[in-house]
Design goal:
The complex is a heterodimer of chains A (about 325) and B (about 550).
Chain A lengths: L1 H28 L4 H4 L3 H6 L2 H10 L6 H13 L13 H36 L4 H15 L2 H15 L17 H35 L2 H9 L3 H39 L4 H10 L3 H29 L10
Helix pairs in contact in A: 1-13, 6-7, 6-9, 6-11, 7-9, 8-9, 8-11, 9-11, 11-12, 11-13, 12-13
Chain B lengths: L6 H12 L25 E6 L15 H10 L4 E3 L6 E3 L2 E6 L5 E6 L13 H13 L17 H4 L9 E5 L2 E5 L7 H4 L10 H4 L11 H4 L11 E7 L3 E6 L12 E5 L4 H10 L4 E5 L4 H5 L4 E6 L4 E6 L9 H10 L2 H8 L4 E3 L19 H11 L6 E6 L5 H14 L4 E6 L1 H10 L5 E6 L27 H12 L3 H18 L2 E7 L1 E6 L2 E3 L17 E3 L1
Parallel strand pairs in B: 1-10, 1-11, 15-16, 15-17
Antiparallel strand pairs in B: 2-3, 4-5, 5-7, 6-7, 8-9, 9-10, 11-19, 12-19, 13-17, 13-18, 14-18, 20-21
Helix pairs in contact in B: 10-12, 15-16
The chains are: A mainly alpha (about 325), B alpha+beta (about 550).
Chain lengths: ~325, ~550
């Protein structure tokens, strides 16, 4: 078991390297020059070529892409992610400041997705073609087919502006930075929107997977043996139905990061998603690399967690034999 | 193993617990109480200006109107402008004298101003600000200060010398001599590019490190000004918190705190105006005008905009080098229809850059497809592509550009739209490639004819239209050189005729700006014509 995990983690390292190489190459090829991009055209006209070259040298941009990549990597290994050209601050600080907000939002959303998606998926499957099943299916289809930002804006206007039961965006109310209740109130809407959108997807998969398992022979056998419905459902059906569901979860976790970009933007939630949008729009390559590094790591961790979960749910699934 | 089934759920829960108060929503979470004073007490003004911002606090990195607003609350200039954005009044200079030829300016400084850290302000701070700027002029990457117009400014670039035209008369008097007359100089000095900086904080800062020192990054206690508010907290891309400075030399401000909120999505700012979480907003989308007007706690203001939407032709490219083709484009676009239908009348059609008078002898270029076609035929236009580069993040661009395209197509001009994002726009603008014209949105041209001077460059055809007719530069210089209204008008009249006839850029229209303020805001509060200047008298505002 431990050898298996050791190997999984070892494989993740070159994958992460590959991600950073690909990202670095794409960013280097993007139109827009970090030197002149944020420069007033009049100023640009005033500066001589030597001035521009000096600035390029200062940022190391005069070197070819592979050398710049190796330098970047060497700095990263030493814990230095470089400086943001947009804020003038170290990227590690910028990313660190926003990591907490993002993790809070994503973890809450993931929890909501699982707590809502799994049980309702089972309920839906057990009551196939019943009234509850139709109702849940209708709700999930609405949730899946409506873009997150539309849901978010509707929720903001209904619960924030009209009913005034929840705050309208932001991480906290100014002046109440340390008020836990105030922060929780601000978390409700973005976490629910992000969580429910993913719960809907998870529910559909759980339902399909459960239906698959419920119609299989060993369930029929279990019934024939006279086992009670709940035991069949939980111990025999759900456990097997979870295997494909875990695959979906492993996909949903990194997907959450992508969706958080939109949710964070709409709710003015100062997380990594918002940061990456701003960095992309501003051609802040070092900042984008910092975000990609974090997101790439998170994706790999999610996939390792999924593998771990497989082996828990189904001991037959082991890629390496224990010796 | 058996009991650890929901491993992922547990991992998520642990993660949630690890990052503090992150449990999912409890239904008992309390809501917001409604306006008028929902949170943070009644003495906090929450502001948003829905436009781009930069995260820097030193004029070397000054590129946005948001910085202008923050800085006018924290810093002072020598002189400032009143709400008409024309009348100049004293700021750190309590009085001044100007020589008849608009060349020598003598400023008498106030003697009771102090920096936010308690240090006294005097002429040395002014001398330092101007000297540093002239020595390091190439460090200014955005709106540049006026100081390079001082006599001898070029000679001290890269040295440690004081320019010839700068003299400290006594501890509270400074004399500035310009290299050439400039009757516009006083108003130009009200721009935040010319804020007076603290010598005791910045004296050892060099061009190499100015962009990274704590002052420039916005650090409370270090980023000190002489203004009515001091910087209390700054979180890049999120918020600026200002606190009243009780010792302000014009008297203590009446509102104790100001928070500038930065929004990633303007739609949320509008929702916060409706919910009472935002008290003042600049540059709200005109589409929100009617809805916000229905809220009785808000004043919704549709204000004249000194800025402009214009098509700038790259006049170096055939056939756009022929003025008849450019005139045809002007005739072919139904500007009045855009103003009436899209802006519901809250915009005004232009025939020149705003700031110029609309003299009777100018061509109004009223919509006329036949004239456009005739001009194209005369010029021998035969379907060459007309690619218009534009920044799709510009307000209304996504809706208006297709209207312009279909108008031009109807006149027989093969028009392609080239939408880009912010940086892509600048990249293509700088290279000059992939387009025959671009859309520019801006600015402050409406404040004076002199303001449009910046869009023309006598030597570099890559700047803007590349229109280098030497006569226009002479006329702009004439306008600057005299304070006599009749002589200035004569120069600007001829200039208006040339720009109107040659159409290096088609000045389309000027959309009104929508500003929204809570009705609790009063005292000296008034939206200035140049809205970014609105905070210049913020110490007089009150919040009920």
């Amino acid at each position: 078991m431990s050898a298996y995990f050791f190997r999984r983690v070892l494989i993740a390292v070159p994958v992460l390297l590959g991600i950073t190489i690909a990202a670095f190459s794409v960013l280097s090829a993007a139109p827009g020059d970090p030197i002149t991009a944020r420069m007033d055209p009049e100023v640009r006209a005033r500066l001589t070529q030597e001035d521009l070259d000096r600035r390029r040298r200062e940022l190391g941009l005069d070197q070819p892409v592979p050398i710049r990549y190796v330098r970047w990597l060497a700095d990263v290994v030493q814990g230095d992610l470089g400086y943001s050209i947009v804020t003038g601050r170290p990227i590690a600080t910028e990313v660190g400041n926003r990591l907490g907000a993002s993790l809070t939002l994503m973890a809450s959303a993931a929890l909501i997705a699982i707590l809502v998606g799994l049980p309702f998926g089972v309920v839906s499957a057990v009551n196939q073609y019943g009234r509850i099943d139709y109702l849940l299916s209708a709700v999930t289809i609405i949730l899946i087919s409506t873009p997150t930002f539309v849901l978010a804006l509707i929720a903001l206007y209904v619960f924030g502006v009209t009913l005034k039961v929840l705050p309208v965006g932001d991480l906290f109310t100014f002046g109440k930075e340390n008020d836990v209740v105030d922060r929780l109130a601000h978390l409700v809407m973005p976490a629910m929107i992000l969580g429910l959108a993913n719960a809907a997807q998870l529910m559909r998969y759980t339902r399909a997977s459960m239906l698959d398992v419920l119609s299989s022979d060993y369930i029929t056998t279990a019934r024939a043996k006279g086992l009670v419905g709940r035991v069949i459902l939980v111990r025999h059906a759900l456990r097997n139905a979870l295997i494909p569901v875990i695959t979906i979860l492993a996909i949903i976790l990194p997907q959450l990061i992508g969706e958080a970009v939109i949710t964070e933007t709409v709710f003015n939630w100062p997380g990594l998603g918002q940061l990456s949008v701003r960095a992309a729009a501003d051609r802040d390559p070092a900042m984008l690399m910092g975000v990609i590094l974090i997101v790439g790591t998170a994706t790999l961790v999610a996939s390792i967690l999924a593998d771990f979960a497989y082996s828990v749910v189904d001991p037959r699934i082991r890629y390496v034999r224990d010796r | 193993m058996r009991r650890r089934l929901p491993a992922i759920a547990m991992a998520a829960a642990l993660l949630a617990a690890a990052c503090g108060p992150a449990a999912p929503a409890s239904p008992s979470a309390p809501g917001q109480s409604p306006a008028p004073s929902p949170n943070g007490g009644g003495d906090v003004l929450r502001v948003a200006r829905l436009a781009d911002h930069y995260n820097f606090w030193h004029p070397v990195q000054f590129q946005t109107g948001n910085q202008f607003q923050w800085w006018s609350a924290v810093f002072n200039t020598l002189v400032e402008a009143e709400a008409d954005s024309r009348t100049v009044v004293g700021d750190l200079a309590e009085s001044w004298e100007v020589s008849p030829d608009a060349t020598v300016f003598t400023f008498k400084l106030v003697e009771n101003a102090t920096w936010h850290d308690g240090e006294p302000f005097d002429a040395d701070d002014v001398m330092f600000t101007i000297t540093w700027a002239t020595q390091n002029y190439d460090s200014f990457l955005g709106f540049a200060p006026l100081w390079n117009q001082i006599k001898g400014a070029d000679a001290v670039k890269g040295t440690t010398n004081v320019p010839e035209g700068l003299r400290k008369v006594d501890d509270f008097t400074v004399e500035v001599t310009l290299a050439a007359p400039n009757a516009e100089a006083l108003y130009a000095l009200t721009d935040m590019a010319n804020v007076i900086l603290p010598e005791h904080v910045l004296k050892d800062v060099t061009a190499a490190d100015v962009e990274k020192v704590p002052f420039t990054l916005g650090t409370p206690g270090v980023t000190v000004g002489t203004g009515p508010y001091k910087l209390a907290a700054f979180t890049p891309d999120q918020s600026v918190e200002l606190e009243a400075y009780a010792d302000y030399f014009k008297g203590a401000p009446k509102i104790s705190k100001i928070i500038f909120k930065l929004f990633a999505d303007p739609a949320l700012a509008v929702a916060q105006l409706e919910s009472g979480d935002l008290d003042l907003a600049f540059r709200v989308s005109p589409g929100e005008f009617d809805r916000l007007s229905a809220i009785d706690t808000l004043n919704v203001i549709s204000a004249d905009n000194p800025g402009i939407i214009r098509i700038v032709f790259r006049t170096g490219i055939d056939p756009w080098s022929d003025k008849r083709v450019r005139q045809a484009v002007y005739y072919a676009i139904n500007r009045q229809a855009i103003v009436d239908d899209f802006y519901k009348g809250r915009a005004r059609v232009l025939i020149n850059p705003p700031g110029f008078q609309e003299y009777d002898d100018l061509n109004r270029y009223e919509y006329n497809v036949d004239t456009a076609k005739q001009l194209l035929a005369d010029a021998g236009y035969n379907g060459q592509p007309f690619r218009i580069l534009y920044n799709q993040t510009f307000p209304d661009a996504q809706q208006v550009m297709p209207l312009i395209q279909s108008d031009l197509q109807a006149a027989g001009i093969t028009t392609e739209l080239v939408p880009t994002d912010n940086e892509g726009f600048l990249a293509q603008y700088n290279s000059g490639e992939g387009h025959e014209a671009f859309i520019a949105v801006g600015g402050s041209e409406g404040l004076s004819p002199d303001r449009s001077r910046q869009y023309f460059n006598p030597t570099d055809p890559k700047i803007e239209s590349g229109y280098t007719n030497p006569r226009i530069f002479e006329l702009w210089a004439e306008g600057r050189a005299t304070a006599d209204p009749a002589a200035r008008d004569a120069a600007y009249h001829e200039l208006a005729r040339i720009l109107n006839e040659d159409v290096p850029q088609a000045n389309l229209y000027s959309p009104n700006l929508v500003m929204v303020a809570t009705k609790r805001l009063g005292g000296g509060f008034d939206i200035h014509l140049n809205e970014r200047e609105t905070f210049m008298d913020v110490e007089t505002w009150t919040l009920e």
